Amino acid sequence: MPLSPTQKKQVIKEYQTTDGDTGSPEVQIALLTKRIDRLTQHLKDHIHDMHSRRGLLSMIAKRRRHINYLEEVDKKRSSVIEKKIGLKK
Fold first, then answer.
1. Coil, strand or helix at 10
2. Is 86 left (phi over 0), alpha (psi -120 to 50) or beta?
3. Residue 20 to residues 23, 25, 58: CA-CA distances in angstroms?
4. Calpha distance 46→30 (Å, rounded)
5. Residue 21 has pLDDT above 80, yes or no
6. Which of the following CATH numbers is that of domain 5-84: 3.40.50.300, 3.20.20.450, 1.10.287.10, 1.10.10.60?
7. Backbone angles phi, psi at 74, to 5 degrees
């Protein structure tokens, strides 16, 4: 379930590091988190939807890889984005 363009722009605007930034790890992690939250709600209603569950697990793994990369590059930025999004370590 993709995000609507307005939701996507809103998330990008909130988490971007500079103007026009759409590809930084912070933005990518925030977008994935938003999609994960929406898909989680969908799966609560549709318990037997295994195809969407597989997509959810793949998004979670991708977000984890982005966070691990950010930890390698800059530990402080990683901890800030985790707190801002509400992830537990």
1. helix
2. left
3. 9, 14, 27
4. 24
5. yes
6. 1.10.287.10
7. -155, 105
| C-beta separation of 56 from 19 below 8 A | no
Q: What is the pTM of this model?
A: 0.92
User: Whats the size of the chain, residue-wise?
Assistant: 89
The residue type at 7: Q
User: Across all residues in the chain, what is the average pLDDT?
Assistant: 94
> Hey, where are the domains in the chain?
5-84
Per-residue pLDDT band at 88 (split at 50, 70, 90): confident
Q: What's the one-letter identity of residue 64?
A: R
CA distance 12 to 1: 18
Q: Can you tell me which residue has the tokens 């793994």?
A: 61
Confidence of residue 89 (pLDDT cuts 50, 70, 90): low
pLDDT greater than 90 at residue 1: no
